[in-house]
Amino acid sequence: MKIGIDQMSFFSPHLYIEMSDLAQARGEDPNKYLIGIGQTRQAVIPPTQDAVTMGANAAAPLMTDELRQTLDLVIFATESGIDQSKSGAAYLQRLLGIQKYARTIELKQACYSGTYGLMQARDYVAVHPDRKVLVVASDVARYGLKTSGEVTQGGGAVAMLVSADPQILTLENDSQFMTDDVMDFWRPNYATEARVDGKYSSNVYQEFFKELWDRYRKQTGRTIDDFDALVFHLPYTKMGKKGLQMVLPEADELQQKELLAQFEASQKYSRQIGNLYTGSLYLSLLSLLNETPGLKPGARLGLFSYGSGAEGEFYSGILQPKYHAGLVSNQVPDLLSRRQGLSIAQYEQIFEQTLQGSADRELEIKNDPAQFVLAGLKNERRQYLKQH
């Protein structure tokens, strides 16, 4: 039985900054950000959006009346959780109108948990082939103003429906994964911004990829010749390119050009959005599917997922004949074209407007065009609204 990703959808808020403006404000050469890091723009998350609202906004285009009544498993992957106890998936269930006889669960392992959620969904469908599972990977990448990690901030959500006989990608049962307790990135309970050892984290990412790639080849007997594209988790786009360059010498000259061209297509959206944490790999996949006209059904894609702390997985999927039917038509280009650019002063003001503390407050939602918004805090409870 074929099982995999049947439909995909994406959301990121309506605000952004130019990385060249940020570089100038921080006294850096713009090329350090544009070329050295590989980022052009960065999504800015207003106080009226969080991991829950972004997840709901991403999933909404996939919902139908029939799905709302039959969906019985919602998996919410995030490292930007809004509660130490209650699952963000429970909020999604209500906001999306999903029937109450459904399991809703939140997963955490840095940027990796979106992939684990996808694999759990696959296993569930294997036992219940008539069911579908909603997997949402949603995060706010936040390091702090004037920090070394500021250039790799961003945010957004990817929603995926997993089913038998999927329209987009079948998942092969060939995953190779590994875990190691390292302190390359973490966020203490008392902090809203992550802590990161940037150079060390970059090295661990590359070491995980190479070790898993070598293990995958040994376990499956496949080589780089068996792949039409390699898709990477992209905390920033240069990171994935470094990973790809580690294995390119295994390919002949023609395939090297093809793999590089596919990577350029896969990183196009991430260059404009920034870091999605749990959704980053799947934004790369969306970008590849939408921006590569020559990608043919039956193509084997290799996908590398990494989460600091650290856990990684390499697996493959087979592109399906009607994969475009599972994508929301022109969704990401339309979203990018409608965004509003901010000055660095405006961005810094928004960055400081976090919903911290226990005091009641109302947020100004009229300027947020999203369907689902965070309207404030009342009796220590987040107030989520559907605007339209």
TrEMBL record:
Location of the active site: E79, C111, H233
GO biological process: acetyl-CoA metabolic process
Domain Hydroxymethylglutaryl-coenzyme A synthase C-terminal positions: 177-248, 261-354
InterPro entries: HMG_CoA_synt_C_dom, HMG_CoA_synth_N, HMG_CoA_synthase_prok, Thiolase-like
Boundaries of every Hydroxymethylglutaryl-coenzyme A synthase N-terminal domain copy: 2-165
Alphabetic keyword roster: Transferase
Entry keyword Transferase: yes
One Gene Ontology MF term: hydroxymethylglutaryl-CoA synthase activity
SUPFAM superfamilies: Thiolase-like (SSF53901)
Residues holding (3S)-3-hydroxy-3-methylglutaryl-CoA: D29, Y143, K242, N275
Top-rank taxon: Bacteria
Family membership noted in the UniProt record: Belongs to the thiolase-like superfamily. HMG-CoA synthase family.
PANTHER family named among the record's database cross-references: 3-HYDROXY-3-METHYLGLUTARYL COENZYME A SYNTHASE, HYDROXYMETHYLGLUTARYL-COA SYNTHASE
Name recorded for this polypeptide: Hydroxymethylglutaryl-CoA synthase
Organism annotation: Weissella kandleri
